[in-house]
Amino acid sequence: MKTNIQRECKCHGISGQCNQKTCWQKLPTFRHVSNFLKSKFDGASKVMISNKGNELIVEGETIKPPTNLDLVYTTDSPDFCINNPKTGSLGTDGRQCNASSKAVDGCGLLCCDRGFTSYTVTVEFHCKCRFYWCCQVRCEKCKRKRKFHRCKSFSGSRKKTSKGSQRVV
């Protein structure tokens, strides 16, 4: 992050003259830092420590050795897609998701590529409300159909992929 620190200055003086200048180091925006860290996370390599304990060995022959600027990890992340009381993960079975979203609330990502079921529910709510003098509000009851999506449960065998994530085969 040192390379992304910026120098910012402010002038002080009468009538906008720059008689005195105060400067400081300014960190980049949170968005910039988070994007930088996410790119490092996506390119992280799994490593082992050598027997001598003085170097990192990459797991896999086709992976380039990490530099001092690369992110590395030694153990796989737990699988948060399935219920695991040991890690505190409730899993995503039955979780409500957004079928049209590509973000973290989207069914593709949230349901861990195992699919989702859709169902329609009729929701009743107050509508066409009117205020009557004094101190009374009268509403009609309206109904609207809403479509919901929930993650399917795991079925079949699971195959381990890189970084500890798992896919249904």
Topology readout:
Layout: E1 6-12, E2 20-26, H1 30-42, E3 45-49, E4 56-58, E5 72-73, E6 96-97, H2 107-110, E7 116-132, E8 136-151, E9 158-160, E10 166-168
Written description of the protein model:
- There is one protein chain.
- The chain is mainly β and 169 residues long.
- The protein folds into three domains: 42 residues, no CATH class; 33 residues, no CATH class; 93 residues, Wnt (Wingless and Int-1), C-terminal domain (Endo-n-acetylneuraminidase fold).
- Helix content is 10%, strand content 38%.
- The C terminus is likely disordered.
Task: Tag the structure with descriptive keywords.
3-stranded mixed beta sheet; 3-stranded antiparallel beta sheet; 2 helices; Endo-n-acetylneuraminidase fold; 169 residues; flat; 3 domains
Task: Please sum up the structure shown.
This protein is mostly beta strands and 169 residues long. The protein has 2 helices and 10 strands, in the order E-E-H-E-E-E-E-H-E-E-E-E.
Please give the share of residues in helix.
Answer: 10-25%
Please provide the count of β strands. 10
CATH topology of the largest domain: Endo-n-acetylneuraminidase fold
Strand content: 35-45%
Q: Topology as H/E string?
A: EEHEEEEHEEEE
* Overall body shape: flat
The CATH architecture classification of the largest domain is: 2-Layer Sandwich
CATH class annotation of the largest domain: Alpha Beta
Instruction: Please tally the helical runs, counting DSSP H or I stretches of 4 or more residues.
Output: 2
Radius of gyration: 27 Å
CATH superfamily of the largest domain: Wnt (Wingless and Int-1), C-terminal domain
Class by SSE composition: mainly beta
Widest beta sheet: strand line-up: 4-3-5
Provide the domain count: 3
Mean pLDDT: 84
Low-confidence stretches: 156-169
- Main beta sheet strand tally, sense and closure: 3 strands, mixed
| N→C terminal distance | 40 Å
